[in-house]
Amino acid sequence: MRTSLYPTVDELERRARTLARAAPGRLRLRQAGESRAGRPLWLLSAGHGERQILTVAGAHANEPVGGASALRLAALFARRPGLLEQLGCTWHFLLCLDPDGARLAHGWQPEEPAPSLTECHRFFYRPAFARQPESLPAPPGAPLPESAALLRLLDELRPVAQFTLHGIEFGGAFMMMTREVPGAARAFRETAAQLRVPVDLHPVDGPDWRLDPPGVLLLPDGHGAGERDPSGYVADSTWFHPRRHGTATVLIETPAWAVPAMSDARPVTDPYAEIARIGEVLLGRIREVTDVLGERPGIVVPEELAPLHDAARELVEVAPSIVETWAGEEPGRFRGHFAALGISARRIPLRVAAMTGRALARGAPETAEILGNLVREWSQELEKTYDLRWVPVSAQTGLQVRTMLNTAALMCAEGG
């Protein structure tokens, strides 16, 4: 049977059980909570050291690489337990924080060495903001069951580090840290270079974070509990919750398709004109999608596909505020920054078309076909404009595994 490069939710559990059975004194598996639909949240633990480290995978449904990285590192610990003994730690892996979303996103399996970007988006799903379990509602709102399970785990373990593993369909690699770990940024960049994964010169995520170029964002001193994204959406986050325990949260993002232009440090002559042009790309393509939908009112979406429709509609609604955010900030001066913005301007409408097409496939197949044509057209334009290069899954997981190990070693050395 062919082994999936990106494990499904069921495969994550099956492989974790196999690892635990093969190394009973080194690995153990337990349930840490349940999803909204009652699916188990599995925690795979390795070692018996005093320090605790937690890795969170699968926080976003469209980012399956984290689960593959978690299993890869757990398997390494099973073979080489001395690594954990040197760190003096117990390492825990929350294998998939959003199994419900992951099931809705599942279906695409890349066929290396040349997977299809169009095929990838045939199965695309990323939940609306309020359904993403790393986001926490403002009081008195209750957290999602998955969020509550993660908060309990963080309070129980009080880890020295929380690694949260993320992926992006196309772009550059970057890292975010809630506090600086001396040497971690350099090690991350060196690992990315060794694996030939371009680093995002100026990530557009975390607009309130301090840039340590290239490719690293640091939480500024005195930052509050809220996390703002480029649309202006603000929420508390599971990234910040364990600061009360002295935990440093480290996000590691790796692309499936690399965009070499995002590492381009050459200057741009007219950054304001570039911002205006990129904003029009985003809004113009959103209008193309809404024009298609405007001609076909009253389409019924099946209940099980409603999350797709809701997530797409939210992206349509926030697109103007994203453009306003870009226009209101002091623009970067380098081509890599504008490559990142250009990628974002294309990614958002591509996601809208992909998710809306999936949601309407049964009730309005003709509309879904038109949207599918847009997905294919925009995917091909992306591949041509930005010279997309597939990053082998071994390199995607390698970047996350090595960065976790390097950062953990530096943090444990800090603690003596």
In short, what is this structure?
By secondary structure, the protein is an alpha/beta fold.
Structural overview:
With 416 residues, the protein is of the alpha/beta class. The chain has two domains: 9-259 and 391-414, Zn peptidases (Aminopeptidase); 263-387, no CATH class. The protein is 45% helix and 17% strand. The chain contains twelve helices and 13 strands. It has helices at 9-22, 65-79, 82-87, 99-105, 117-122, 145-157, 184-194, 271-294, 306-328, 335-360, 365-386, 393-414, and strands at residues 27-34, 40-46, 51-56, 89-94, 135-136, 161-171, 174-177, 210-212, 216-218, 226-228, 234-237, 248-258, 389-390. A hairpin with a 5-residue loop joins strand 1 (27-34) and strand 2 (40-46). Helix 2 crosses helix 12 (393-414), helix 8 (271-294) packs antiparallel against helix 9 and helix 9 (306-328) packs antiparallel against helix 10. The protein is globular and about 60 Å long. It starts with 8 loop residues before the first helix and ends with a helix. 50% of the residues are buried. The mean pLDDT is 93.
